[in-house]
Design a protein that fits this description.
Layout: H1 2-13, H2 22-27, E1 47-50, E2 56-60, E3 64-65, H3 75-85, H4 97-110, H5 120-132, H6 136-143, H7 147-163, H8 166-176, E4 178-180, E5 183-184, H9 186-194, H10 203-212, H11 225-244, H12 250-257, H13 278-290, H14 298-307, E6 311-314, H15 318-331, E7 339-345, E8 352-357, E9 386-387, H16 393-402, E10 410-413, E11 416-418, E12 439-441, E13 448-451, H17 452-457, H18 461-471, H19 473-482, E14 505-506, H20 508-519, E15 523-525, E16 530-534, E17 540-542, E18 547-549, H21 553-568, E19 583-588, E20 594-600, E21 605-611, E22 622-626, E23 629-633, H22 640-651, E24 688-689
Parallel strand pairs: 1-6, 3-5
Antiparallel strand pairs: 1-2, 4-5, 6-16, 7-8, 7-21, 9-14, 10-13, 11-12, 11-24, 15-18, 16-17, 19-20, 20-21, 22-23
């Protein structure tokens, strides 16, 4: 090694007198050609996303690469790459003196670095330095045509050959090299170019890949005929060289050269657009990129996902996803202007079991595709969502039960409700936000004597406005927040008197998860999409549900008891139940600008939204055709309710039915013979208008 270094230094120093090497002399004053240890960060590898049963559903990567051992690469591939890149590879040390001196002579004639003369070891070093570069400046430095860079590579090459055997270095090189067409490493290249693994490469295929590494961008077969012609010529150069070295016969070379290029352009797997479950895929990607559990900084998390070679086990259940997809297809067409979206969540864990929408996900900006996550909030790739409507009345019901009201407690209301004064409603900042100039009317239900049960079953707006005033707007907001409610766009919840009517824009995952807490007897669990990650070294990290008791179990049980009546006696009665204990709430916004249904069992919860993404204030659900059916006006039970029902029937088939816990006697009541619930004594009496 020392002798080699001496010859090299002598060879480098010679041209200094002629002027072409003046810059070189200054670069090697402290040449110090001793071995240097090369930092070798893990190669960027593909991260595979799996469903709950371990079947692949998506891939993420910065560089599409599949690392394989040398014995899983065809012998002809090893022979071809050595023949064209470094035919004396197994004979020389870290530096091929003949090749290096030959290149130096050529470079001196050119007055710069015109020929590399690099050994495979040196090329491996260059690839490692390039792949380790984080900035463009670092990448340019790793590729710059300078003697200083070549000397640095030589030092590292000497260190690499002290550390590894020749076979180990060759394996590393073939796994790191770029072959073109987006394929890194010989396994990915073999699949991309020819649709086979590296172990099955034929002579002409191996020669093609060996030829591609010299200038993969110039010979990228994915870029058109000119590039493919260059690659074909380069393949034939490799075949001629193999014959010249006696690695193959002239006849074998001629036969291989007579074959067509055979480039297949096998589509690279990965990305959410190619996933069977694109909306869930987008959710998982954003969960990793935005969650500090997966890295301290955004840059760390991006590298973790795109370079980590991870196996990501998720919570999505293929059978439940199929149920949601089928139900949505039955009721809403992809070509419809309104779009339906649905999320299924498991009570007690927060595990997201399905995310479906009526339109396909994509970024081609066609009218049919959606480029954002219809089912989730902005933090998980979603948009602003749709106003949740009367699904929010459930949070007012829960607050009343928390404060001790019984399910048959009630009061009389009219057909219109006007706040008795600005101070009748206070937000959580203490501000008076009542609007005596605005009257709320009923879209559904009739005025008169109503209880927590009947008011909920028939979704009477005026009843819930007065109920919210009595229990306190801020208390209702706190209840909603305790169940994970937040605006889809990430902004602060709008705390106005109509909060209970669902004025905040929401997404199905958030709403379904809040209702799942009722099904879990008040146990709230944050939405969960990832259950386990195994990194490229085999280290496995399990992720557990993040849960807390948000409601007293008896309160949740009482709410479930009330909400079950919605399916049998209320706004969903025409649609009907699902043959097991279930509860839920319809949601219809002003003038049918959007519609919802959120429902739950102890085993599964789901929420369905329906609205026009072009803008619900302009494009309402009146006089519309959805799924081939005409609707004069769309309510929560018109389309979202049936989607939820069909989904649950199929998703829960084969799942043993779990019953709701019995209603605690303390929440019972005696109906209309009970003493009406009085308003707070310090408030102005409620004004009732009978229109």
């Amino acid at each position: 090694m020392g002798a080699a270094a001496g010859v090299l230094v002598a060879g480098i120093a010679l041209p200094a007198v002629g002027g072409a090497g003046v810059g070189l002399v200054s670069a090697v004053k402290d040449v110090g050609l001793e071995p240097r240890d090369l930092p070798e960060p893990p190669l960027a590898q593909v991260s595979v996303v799996q469903d709950v049963k371990g079947r692949e559903i998506a891939r993420f990567y910065e560089q599409y690469r599949e690392v394989v051992p040398l014995d899983e690469m065809a012998d002809v591939m090893k022979t071809a790459i050595i023949s064209i890149e470094d035919y004396r590879y197994y004979e020389h040390g870290p530096i091929d003196i003949e090749g290096t001196l030959r290149a130096l002579a050529r470079n001196m004639q050119a007055g710069g670095v015109a020929q590399g003369g690099s050994s495979i070891t040196q090329q491996y070093v260059k690839q490692v330095l390039l792949n380790s570069a984080d900035t463009e400046a670092e990448k340019n430095k790793a590729l710059e045509a300078s003697y200083a860079r070549k000397l640095n590579e030589l030092r590292y090459a000497m260190g690499v050959e002290k550390k590894y055997s020749k076979d180990e270095i060759l394996e590393k090189y073939l796994n790191i090299a770029y072959f073109g067409a987006g394929a890194y490493g010989v396994e990915a290249a073999a699949k991309r170019f020819f649709g086979v693994g590296a172990s099955r490469l034929t002579l002409p295929q191996a020669a093609t890949l060996a030829g591609a590494v010299q200038d993969p961008n110039a010979t990228d077969p994915n870029l058109g005929k000119t590039h493919r012609d260059r690659l074909l010529k380069r393949r034939n150069v490799v075949l001629d060289r193999m014959a010249e070295l006696g690695k193959i016969t002239a006849a074998e070379a001629a036969k291989a050269k007579a074959t067509k290029l055979g480039y297949k352009g096998t589509k690279l797997p990965g990305g959410c657009e190619s996933s069977k479950y694109p909306y869930f895929c987008v959710y998982v990607r954003n969960e990793i990129l935005n969650n500090s559990d997966f890295g301290r900084t955004a840059k760390d998390r991006l590298r973790f996902l795109n370079r980590g070679g991870l196996t990501i086990r998720t919570t999505i259940d293929p059978s439940m996803q199929a149920a949601a997809d089928a139900a949505i297809r039955k009721w809403v067409n992809p070509s419809d202007n309104p779009v339906a979206a649905e999320a299924l969540v498991q009570p007690g864990t927060g595990a997201i079991r399905a995310m479906a929408a009526s339109r396909p996900y994509g970024t081609r900006k066609t009218r049919k595709e959606m480029s954002y996550n219809l089912v989730a909030d902005a933090a998980h790739g979603g948009g602003i969502g749709f106003q949740a409507g009367s699904t929010f009345k459930t949070f007012t019901l829960l607050t009343a039960l928390k404060q001790g009201m019984k399910i048959n407690d009630g009061f009389s209301v009219g057909a219109g409700y006007t706040a008795p004064g600005a101070s009748a409603f206070r937000n959580c900042a203490g501000g008076s936000i009542g609007d005596p100039g605005h009257t709320v009317t009923n879209d559904e239900g009739s005025p008169g004597w109503l209880t927590l049960q009947t008011g909920t079953w028939h979704s009477v707006n005026t009843f819930f406005m007065e109920l919210e005033r009595r229990v306190g707007l801020c208390e209702v907001v706190k209840t909603a927040k305790s169940l994970g409610i937040h605006r889809s766009d990430g902004g602060a919840l709008q705390e106005f008197e109509t909060f209970t009517l669902g004025i905040n824009e929401m997404d199905p995952v958030t709403v379904a998860n809040a209702y799942a807490a009722i099904g879990a007897r008040g146990k709230y669990c944050a939405p969960m999409a990832i259950s386990r990650i195994t990194d490229s070294t085999g280290k496995t990290t399990d992720y557990k549900p993040k849960c807390r008791q948000a409601l007293d179990p008896e309160v949740a049980d009482a709410a479930a008891h009330v909400l079950s009546g919605v399916l049998t006696k209320g706004t969903m009665a025409a649609v009907g139940g699902i043959g097991r204990d279930a509860g839920g709430k319809t949601g219809t916004n002003d003038n049918s600008s959007s519609a919802w249904f959120a429902g739950f069992t102890p085993d599964l919860a789901g929420a369905v939204s329906l609205g026009d993404p072009r803008g619900t204030s302009k494009y309402k659900l009146n006089g519309v055709t959805i799924g081939g059916r005409y609707y004069g006006e769309v309510f929560g039970a018109s389309v979202p309710g049936p989607i939820w029902k069909d989904t649950m029937l199929k998703a829960l088939s084969g799942v043993p039915a779990t019953k709701f816990a019995p209603l605690d006697p303390s929440f019972g009541g005696c109906g209309q013979s009970c003493r009406p619930v009085a308003p707070p004594p310090d408030d102005t009496p409620v004004e009732i208008r009978l229109d």
